[in-house]
Design brief:
15 strands; globular; Nucleotidyltransferase, domain 5
């Protein structure tokens, strides 16, 4: 089984796993390319390829175009040799995606939950959905490589615990999410912040092998993830929302963290709604409406006050991201969030502000996320796959 092969972290098996990963990353590659990459004797590489092929992990994908000699033989990954699940736990919903080993979606489940819902209510519902999907596709534990979770934070990744997220009910504080899922699914499970798993999705699915990626999510919180050539630059606290507490105005608006002038106090949906309520002197309580729905509806109605506040928020968001760029020096920046995708003027203002305030401009690309709402969950699936190449015996 592929799962057993990838869980074997012995020195003897390591080179086979690296060759498998090389083929996987490139989707299709030739023996000539592998010889150049690994500097192995041809007989050794041929033996390993035959072994991987005999076990059903890779297959001969035909001949390529010759360049003066024999046409090269190409190899590719067998898609259904194993399966993975990626999960996105956000403030408002849970998304789970079942994929094959090439991260091709087989089925997606999604359900909303209220901010007051507890883990004891949400996780059993998720487990029930997942078991139905696995039964439907006849996938047994031995074929399920693992489950990767991208979540709001802060997190204790090593222990698999959601610590004390601002955006969820108090019952989510110190929620042992990995343990709760492991009781039902005896497979490897990883937990990381959703911005980092989304960065994994962009990195792998777009083959950005030599790139450093900054992935920025703005919604009910400000979350960021950073990958340097596929390796995460996580902070020890695992708090993807820490970027939201960059101070951009020392005497500015009050933030939920107790400080003044944090980026989150100018850019999150709830902060925007509070400004709108304050500026327009509307009668409803901010707790009685869905922030993003109200903002989108106001923009669709061309409300000038809301438009002004949203574009000012975009400016502040761009300032915050430019500060991160000047420190981290990514080559690609991906922007994600409902306003980014659905309100072009907001995206353009964020991008323009970043470009005007970054120190080095020539080597960086700033763009919308290419995968959209599935990025966090797909990235979770990718991270659990990738973890099998990092664990030690």
């Amino acid at each position: 089984m592929l799962k057993e092969f990838l869980l074997d972290s012995s020195e003897k098996n390591n080179i086979k796993k690296q060759i498998y990963k090389y083929i996987h990353m490139r989707r299709r590659t030739s023996k000539i390319e592998m010889l150049q990459a690994f500097h192995l004797p041809q007989t050794t590489l041929t033996r390993i390829i035959y072994e991987l092929q005999d076990k059903g992990y890779i297959y001969n994908d035909g001949k390529g175009v010759p360049s003066g000699g024999r046409p090269p033989t190409y190899y590719a990954i067998v898609p259904n040799a194993a399966y993975v699940i990626g999960i996105d736990i956000s403030r408002t919903h849970v998304t789970a995606i079942l994929t094959n080993i090439l991260f091709e979606e087989l089925e997606k489940i999604q359900f909303k939950f209220h901010v007051t819902d507890t883990p004891e209510k949400v996780i059993p519902k998720l487990v029930s959905y997942l078991k139905k999907v696995l039964n439907k596709h006849k996938i047994k534990d031995e074929a399920l490589l693992g489950i990767g979770i991208g979540s709001v934070g802060p997190l204790d990744r090593e222990k698999g615990i959601i610590l004390n997220p601002d955006s969820l009910a108090r019952e989510w504080h110190n929620a042992p999410i990995v343990q709760m899922l492991n009781e039902e699914f005896p497979v490897p499970i990883t937990l990381n912040n959703g911005a980092t798993t989304a960065a994994y999705a962009e990195y792998y699915l777009n083959s950005l092998l030599d790139e450093s990626i900054l992935y920025c999510i703005n919604g009910y919180g400000v979350r960021t993830g950073f990958l340097e050539r596929g390796m995460p630059g996580n902070n020890k606290a695992g708090d993807s929302s820490a970027a939201g507490h960059i101070v951009i105005d020392i005497n500015g608006r009050d933030c939920i963290c107790g400080k003044k002038g944090c980026l989150a106090a100018y850019t999150t949906y709830q902060a925007l709604l509070e400004e709108i309520v304050e500026k327009k002197a509307v009668s409803f309580s901010k707790d009685q409406v869905n922030a993003i729905d109200f903002i989108k509806e106001s923009l669709e109605n061309n409300d000038p006050t809301v438009k002004e506040l949203v574009l000012r928020s975009a400016y502040y968001y761009g300032i915050g991201i430019s500060n991160m760029i000047n420190i981290l020096h990514p080559t690609k920046v991906f922007l994600h969030g409902k306003l980014i995708y659905q309100y072009p003027a907001y995206y353009q203002e964020v991008k323009k502000t970043i470009e005007e305030n970054i120190y080095i401009k020539s080597t960086i690309t700033i763009q919308k996320g290419t995968i959209g709402e599935k990025s966090v969950a797909l990235g979770g699936a990718i991270e659990i796959y990738n973890a099998h190449f990092n664990w030690q015996a």
